Amino acid sequence: MVWSSLLWTNWALGLFGQQQVISGPEHRPQDSYASVNSKRPNVVFILTDDQDLHMQSLDYLPLIKKHLLDQGTFYRKHFCTVAICCPSRVSLLTGKAAHNTNVTDVNPPYGGYPKFVSQGLNENFLPIWLQEAGYNTYYTGKLFNWHSVDNYHSPFVKGFTGSDFLLDPFTYQYLNSAYQRNRDAPVRHVGEHTTDLLAEKAYGFLDDAVKEDAPFFLTIAPVAPHSNAQVNDLTENVGGKNYEFRAPIPAKRHEHLFKDVKVPRTENFNPKEPSGVNWVRGLPRQSQENVDANDHFYRQRLRALQGVDEIVDGIVSRLEQHGVLDNTYIVYSADNGYHIGQHRMQPGKECGFEEDIRVPLIIRGPGVPKNATTDIVTTHTDLAPTFLQIVGAPLRPDFDGEAIPLSKAGIQEATQKRHEHVNVEYWGIALAEGKVWDSPKIHTNNTYKGLRILGESYSFYYSVWCNNEHELYDLNTDPGQLKNLLARDVKVEQQTLLGFPLTKVVARLDSLLFVLKSCKGRTCIQPWRALHPAANVENLHDALSPRYDHFYEVQQQRVEYSRCEAGYIVDAEGPQFERDGAVYRHGTRWSEWV
Fold this sequence. Notes:
Pfam families: Sulfatase (PF00884)
Largest sheet: 11 strands, mixed
CATH architecture of the largest domain: 3-Layer(aba) Sandwich
GO biological process, one term: phenol-containing compound metabolic process
Strand order of the largest sheet: 1-14-3-13-12-2-9-5-6-7-8
Low-confidence stretches: 1-31, 234-241, 579-594
CATH superfamily of the largest domain: Alkaline Phosphatase, subunit A
CATH class of the largest domain: Alpha Beta
Number of domains: 2
Mean pLDDT: 90
Shape: globular
Helix content: 25-40%
Strand content: 15-25%
Number of helices: 18
Signal peptide: 1-23
Protein name: Arylsulfatase
Structural class: alpha/beta
């Protein structure tokens, strides 16, 4: 059976009143969070599907506010590194960038569950490591795309004490799901709402877990607020022609909510002038009928999330009843973000814009500051190291991320010392969800490399697309990412940024991206060290010293593609830092390059 493309898949500070912003002098963070209690802590990880941050979905989740935001810390600068379901989830569960897992799509040949297995990751990911550390592990909900009713046993997913997985092609059908428990055959649930089914399965695993004489790690992965997918032909579904992604379906009890709510009318919502590059710049402005339909789509997403809000309440209540709440970390996040109408785009993800890559991350638990926010930069590749540090297990030397500090002292130190960059990457297509209007349903050549960098006085997004178009946005002055400072009609040589010539700043950003686009291990965490082994450059500000002008502007290799590919084909991606074994070779003068 061929599934093909079916299987794809303001800021909250101040949203709920005054919150504590963590700042202060440096302190040494705890080396292991497991030492907070004499008994090893439990972990509940809740991972939603396609939940936005920038469209303010957290505003509409009062139980998450009550139990998580008010009782924990909101990491408001948290990013996924690849804005699509399966690659993002694999990075999250392995602590590795997608270019190192080589799972870069949601379906074969470049992604999905079969690719996860073929890369040897079924024997080498988070639940395996947790079990080695003495934890019982449970999982219910969506795991990966292409994990289906045909291949769930070929092989079974390893590493779980108990599991009840959603399976394709029914994963995204809210009222027609298929769940597969442990080694049992899949069970269809026609007419039952998938989130309510998930809730009961999660509560059951939690009850099982607390009876055992071992700490537990429970993952709850609802499909909400992902689109509802209707499959028209299960046997012939190539190129996305035989399925439809429509607005999610909420439970009956939530259908009446938010009748007048609309997508936030930010500056970049359906703008009068085109923005972006490549296919984005060619999008037509949406008609009022189109906008109205997308507002309905947005409301359905908020309604679908109400079931998730109730699950959080149910989990906290049961943890409290079992007497283990105070010794349990609860971590809440989403696999990737989402856009509706921004830059004239139809509902979807897969782009490097802030709406797609910036996602919720809220953590409560022993020693975690309550009702707090922090601006330290964190990513999905940091979550696996964080979980291992929580349980007191050794971190792996090949991690591309580093543990997220959870204590007040650790967060305070991280404000001074933690890295300021996010490595963003994507391969393949972009899919327009919802009703198709005046633009294509599928946009090809959506392959790019991106860099998000957030310092004390700067906030930039820089990217190079596979057609070698370039983008640079200054989010301090242009939070909607509408003004590309490297647009073809801009005289780059005459522009300044941070008080320097624009070309000087871009040369540094390009060199940093050159390292990150093929980095491994510690190089992904400390890329400036690869460029400056003497460790005399720790951030963009340091790199802008005039002493490095020749190095960056004359000697360095440039990020470039030789062609567009739908997957990670190394020889299409230009020079590779790790592969070439040198920081620069055969440099091109920056003035010639621009």
